[in-house]
Amino acid sequence: MTDTDALFRRLEGELPAGALLTDPDECWVYGYDNSRRQGRPVAVAQPEDRDQVAAILRHCHAAGVTVTPRGRGTGTTGATVPDHGGVILSTERLRRLEPVAADDRYVVAEPGVTNGAVQAAAGEHGFFWPPDPTSAAYCSIGGNLAYNSAGPRAVKYGTPRENTLGLEAVTMDGRVLRSGVRTTKGVVGYDLTRLLIGSEGTLAVITEATLKLTPLPEARATLKAVYADMAAAARAVSRIMAQPVVPCALEFIDGAAIEMVHSHSEADLPEGAGALLMIEVDGPAACLEASATAVANAAHGEGLLDLQRATEAADVAALWATRKALSPALRQVAPKKINEDVVVPVSRIPELIEGLQGLGRRHGITIVNFGHAGNGNIHVNLLVNPDDAEELDRAWRCLDEVFALVLGLDGTLSGEHGVGLEKRDYVDREITPATLDLMRGIKEAFDPRGLLNPGKGLPNAS
Amino acid sequence: MTDTDALFRRLEGELPAGALLTDPDECWVYGYDNSRRQGRPVAVAQPEDRDQVAAILRHCHAAGVTVTPRGRGTGTTGATVPDHGGVILSTERLRRLEPVAADDRYVVAEPGVTNGAVQAAAGEHGFFWPPDPTSAAYCSIGGNLAYNSAGPRAVKYGTPRENTLGLEAVTMDGRVLRSGVRTTKGVVGYDLTRLLIGSEGTLAVITEATLKLTPLPEARATLKAVYADMAAAARAVSRIMAQPVVPCALEFIDGAAIEMVHSHSEADLPEGAGALLMIEVDGPAACLEASATAVANAAHGEGLLDLQRATEAADVAALWATRKALSPALRQVAPKKINEDVVVPVSRIPELIEGLQGLGRRHGITIVNFGHAGNGNIHVNLLVNPDDAEELDRAWRCLDEVFALVLGLDGTLSGEHGVGLEKRDYVDREITPATLDLMRGIKEAFDPRGLLNPGKGLPNAS
């Protein structure tokens, strides 16, 4: 019996029947994510509870086999791609969702529960969990936490780091840790909760999360503002974020993106518009009008072509459908699009947009932008023909300058997609060597043999 | 020349004239904090910038001398008390406050800037920084971050962890790290920002913080609700927190505390009341009435004796003065009070209060409670006569059971005061051995020789 067979035998002994896949065909679909990278795991384990997770990790650790934790594979950076082979630990069977603790505003979920299932359960009690990636219906809580995934609502309600009270997790050598609290305050011990959130499954496998819930707003209003050009829209974003009413969404679509989804959308999108803002405010019904007026006033300014409030539910839905259709639509148009999610301080958005236009022109690359303007989080898409090696090459050179531009504007390389494999080699442009050194020290404290999702998130030590 | 003299010479060489104190009398006042513990530092260094901080740490590291970072010494747990002797690194000269970045809603401050100075600067632009400990006028930002200090507003606006975008800090061996961003989103690298916040100066010395600012609310309303007994008030807190309007303060004073400050207060406090709630709502002027009505409705219920809205500014000020006078007043009454800041989920407050009353009776100890009820963060004060050794002994036994009660209710030992020396020996009741082990691993990654504020925050390894 080979070492691998022996490990399989041990893993099978820990798992329910059928919860260890070793057939390469069955394993194949666990080898890729939305980055379109592909790895080849030797096996896929589907544990059903915390103890099974710990047992799998311990066996792999003893055997020196790498483990890649995986939620639903909706990430875009390759963080769940097993490029070292090894075992995939799929959280798909970890789906316990405890009853909502309505009085204390939290719910306890295992990592395989979908974001959508949490929203549905919370909604019955008048709550929601703020993180809302585009893939919310399908993606898992574990993945949301691993990436610190956010979405449009983050501008008002924050990311998973601001909306998680505590975690249970297991390290590669099978140690079970519990961090955080079931209360909204707690300062005993180091904050391992936020350290694990956003660590892309490199420190420990989350087995349970205590999610902080927020009351559903009583009412919501959606505005659509059309601008002559991107610069005008970007200035409007700055004005909106400089006044006290924080919108619950402030999304941004540039002219190239509008054109691209025109045929896919039922929303009334103006031909030839330079940019579109979707602005949403929510809160108690008693102050909705005042809030909507405040943001509408801020949206007014040079370059505004049209400002409308979507009053019918169907109009609001069409507008959101348009926004959410952008990412898949772009993928259809340009299967090899390079999709970044850079962030700059809101006041620097005009400079970013202007700089991106210059870079696109100079490198002959079509750049399409949309995203969460209220956070300065812009999804920058470089469209490339996958069969044109020369264009691809130009695109990578262009991207290099995009990152330099962003960092020069006090920005960051990723707002919510994370690093994974895709951005790993750019991280040392943003994070200093001494800081990376400390991060590697933390990795070592959690995973001394470097077997848990190795090579993700941090650049290899030089 | 002794080793110590040689070290002093080197430190003096890095600092401006007069910025190294070695006279024991001058050092004395840097040896205690609000825990009333006293240590004896061999020297006090007052660096003026980041490079001087790094140089001091490097020299002490090389000499194997411990360093205790210190803000204004307003902490209550002994975290800044140099119980190992060594050098105090005082942040008092690190007082650079950059101009408020109003468009991007942040301000950059060095750790020695007071909370009050930040509020004043932010206020000029229509913003505030939410953390507001009672000592806000005097305490420093560095201390607020080291402890994750909060205050009444945390119930709506969060603690420093939710209100800090990034940090610069220096490790004991002089490595300068930069974490976080100048934007409201960012997921590149591990979250060292929240890891350092609340780590009580044991991992690195913060030299700069990017503080996230929040727009000042347009209007505020303050309600005072009097209840027949604590249990009735606790039930009201649960009702208030279960409805959608989150108050910006929900403070709680029990009957014993009311009696104690009666003579110190100008507020109209009813004789013989069992408990008092101070409820504040804020937001746009247009929805203030609706918000005040919503919380007032929730405040109504069995045991409510009186509910008034403080309409005059003087009434509001008197009410807050009463709340803020509690801590000092209690200290006058009982100089050896044991002052805890436990937290339980809001729905468990009635059980906590009932349990505390039982423990007080059983051990013959007067227990006075007040605090941030909206977070379930109750300041539990055990009043003891310092000259009565037997009573003191009973009080410690009582405290032991208080902690067991809190943990049994899914609570935590500290909401904002932290651990320091005071609560160190109780930490392993809340945090599991495997989790503590990981925390010690992180400490070692930052400070392998264990020279930076040793022995604070975590229990000694057994």
Automatic annotation (TrEMBL), chains A, B:
Residues 37-216 form the FAD-binding PCMH-type domain. Pfam families: FAD-oxidase_C (PF02913), FAD_binding_4 (PF01565). Its cofactor is FAD. One of its GO terms (molecular function) is oxidoreductase activity. Keywords: FAD, Flavoprotein, Oxidoreductase. The keyword Plastid does not apply. Belongs to the FAD-binding oxidoreductase/transferase type 4 family. PANTHER family: GLYCOLATE OXIDASE SUBUNIT GLCD. This is D-lactate dehydrogenase. It comes from Thiohalospira halophila DSM 15071.
